[in-house]
Amino acid sequence: MRLKTSLLQEPKHKELVSCVGWTTADELYSCSEDHQILRWNLLTSETNLVVKLPDDIYPIDLHWFPKTVGCKKQNQTEIFVLTSTDGKFHLVSKTGRIEKSVEAHKGAVLAGRWNYDGTALITAGEDGQIKIWSKSGMLRSTLASQGSPVYSVAWGPDSDRILYTSGRQLVVKPLQPSAKVIQWKAHDGVVLKVDWNSVNDLILSGGEDCKYKVWDSFGRLLYSSSSHDYPVTSLSWAPDGEVFSVGSFNTLRLCDKTGWSYALEKPNTGSVFSVAWSADGTQLAGACGNGHVIFAHVVEQHWEWRNFVITLTKRRTMQVRNVMNDAVDVLEFRDRVIKASLAYGHLVVATSLQCYVYNSRNWNTPLIFDLKEGTVSLILQAEKHFLLVDGAGLYTFSYEGRLISSPKFPGMRADILNAQGVSLSNDTIAIRDKSDEKVILLFDALTGKALADGKPLTHKLEVVEVALDQCGPSNERKIALIDKNRDLYLTSVRHLGREPKICKIGSMVHSMAWNDAANILCGVQDNQLTVWYYPSAVFTDKDLLPKTLYMKDGSEFSRTPNILSYVGTKVTLRQGDGSLVYSSVPPYPALLHEYSTSARWEDALRLCRFAKDQSLWACLAGMAMANRELTTAEMAYASIGELPRVQYINFIKQQPSKESSLAHMLMFSGQVQEAEATLLQAGLIYQAIQVNIDLFNWERALELAVKHKTHVDTVLAYRQKFLQKFGRKETNKRFLQYADGVEVDWEKIQAKIEMELSKEREKAANASVRSSMAVRR
């Protein structure tokens, strides 16, 4: 990825250009100390004078009123705020007419910013004051007052906090008076510029120490650049939060959100005092010290999938290269490319007005349909369909271009959704709720309706990243989530009645990805690459999970890499310095998943014997138990030396009835309540009591015996035996109460137990006779 810059031969402004701002993706306004406001049209390459300001107005900062709020378009006429050196800010219309001028500060007004919904304006002055104004220019409050000038200010993602500079320090101040203020030393010189992105919640700062830095919203340093030759005079996040630009003297830099630099341009501009991104994030403009306005387009983005590499060579042109045979195809578009995604054999390209869907088997005839909004901010793909996110909402389309669904939920702000907070599978869409990050909203991808009667999935901590698995039937769909403690959890998406079980499967996980062809999960854990061959093992036998892991030492990676994709047996990682690293994973687990899905247990056993890998045997044991394939499970557990489990599986096989077998399988997975419910439903009261006795759930065993008026003496007898063994006396009041009126006779108890078991055997035999007769008929 790099910037393609363009500068006019002669500057249009006669003095230093102080600020720039986009009205549309093809129209820009620039203000200069020559008192002129110019309009730049990129389609016709024309530059017009909008207005010549009065000679006493020297502009410093410009910010357009936001066009959309969440999903609604603003109906207010297009205006922008212009701050100037005379202590005033001016509300100026698109035609250049000054609608209102407000005395705001003593000395220059150094910054002015609308919040995201346009309900408030913040100004920062040379007098050290920060003030909040209504959109009509009425003073609401003075938020802060300090001894040094405030050079830059930015709104928090929800417009409920303010970030501003204070000498060498940065301050995050909530609008609520009682809330805690965060303040920290950010640079060794005065901080000149800040920006705060609403999508990734990261903060940028640049200062006179010639460095730019990336911080999280708590003030923790994520990246610090090396020292440049000149102070950093401007910086700005791209709207989608994936990249940012940094301006300095004769320097324009494009950087990834993690801090490393994609490209460095050295144009003859003087200091770049302001940079602004267009709404679609494809181009930026810079206000230059020598009177120029520099334009830069983002080109040479790369997408990879299996044997295809696709490059955006120009704004409207892509090159497709097949690395197997070096065949090259060139794709031409009518409008400039905004977003693209390549996966599952399809390339989806969103331009400013249309969406193109290409099949990797045929690059000549794309399917084309028109887009409503235009500024697509995110594309996610699954095997059967893809999801487009724009400023107005979320839309699921089939690869034939048919709109399938459009999920909606209260308080939806589609403009701040990113790939970490949204996930798509063939049947489900998962979205992290921005208003409460502990909540994950789940929707049916085919209807757009909320799952589980609209009840979302709630975790105990804020969720950082979500990912749905891609294979298998919809009723077995799993979601993996990383919370802010960096713990990795797995849970079911579709569950009947009861609360879903959220199981922890890893800790210190920084990023993760599901495989595209099997439900195998990989993640960067601590300093190593970990692959969970069969994460669902946590639901059948959680002690088995550590045996199903494949770990790769992270010494070949630099500082915490980020997983980009996991396709086939190849994991693609992006290192801290921006370089790509590929890591291969053995192919056997994917084959094992395939055999398990199609119930080819003999082939699965053959594969495990051939591979001679303990982790594969452990996976097979978990898969066989989940599918109630006891013979295969017995052999797999025996191969990994789990003899107690082999014995228990034998015990399950000897159970006289299907209900008993099922109950003990549930017991095997630790689902005691479900096992008990299964037995009670089948009328096997004694067996349900015995299950609780075996687990020393004495009170529950007695409760069942009393409720069903049977085997009270059995419970008391086993309880007595248990207490005698440990030399203890009975202290439980309920047991003492029933012990008085019940006589314990072991011979009678044994006879009763034998009778119960023979009844169960007889019932099972009758059931099997009935089923065989039904088959004959």
From TrEMBL:
GO cellular component, as recorded: centrosome; cilium; intraciliary transport particle B
Subcellular location per the Swiss-Prot or TrEMBL entry: Cell projection, Cilium
WD repeats by residue range: 102-134, 184-216
SUPFAM superfamilies xref list: WD40 repeat-like
Start and end residues of each IFT80/172/WDR35 TPR domain: 616-762
Gene Ontology BP, a term: cilium assembly
Main location: other
Limits of the IFT80 second beta-propeller domain: 300-588
A Pfam family this chain is assigned to: Beta-prop_IFT80_2nd
PANTHER family: INTRAFLAGELLAR TRANSPORT PROTEIN 80 HOMOLOG, OUTER SEGMENT 5
Protein name: Intraflagellar transport 80 homolog (Chlamydomonas)
UniProt organism field: Sparus aurata
Gene name for this UniProt entry: IFT80
